[in-house]
Design a protein that fits this description.
alpha/beta; 6-stranded mixed beta sheet; 21% strand; 4 helices; 164 residues; Rossmann fold
Amino acid sequence: MKTLLVLRHAKSSWHDPALDDHDRPLNKRGQQDGPRMGELVREHRLTPDVIISSDAVRARLTAEAVAEAARYTSEILLDPHLYIASPAGILAVLRTVRETKAGTVMIVGHNPGLEELVAQLTGEQQDLPTAALAQIVLPIDRWRDLKLSTRGTLLGLWRPKELT
């Protein structure tokens, strides 16, 4: 069994319309939600063994804030293939995870791919607003065995606005 944590990037800023979409930073709410979600990860004992993030600025900043608050001590892996990726593209990245101690992997990326991935793996259509986190348990022994047809179980879903 493996655990996949699916995290959508926190709220980004549209303050500078000249910025390329890839380069947009987090806005004030996004800067607050990242650490809040990291604390939730730590409190629920979900700190991942590996974090892989889109290389978009908003995703990277979210991954860094969550990692710090969750007390994740390893390197955050940045993968340009996760920028606006489809479920198949996300799974291709996940299949590259080395098996050594990688029981729980967090992927940090973008919609609509993340919502589609959760639906594909669990059979449940869920809304993933910015900084939402889904916990999926997968019936696989190795990440390289993950396929679009793999059926996991959605164990948890947290949205920042629902946290008290």
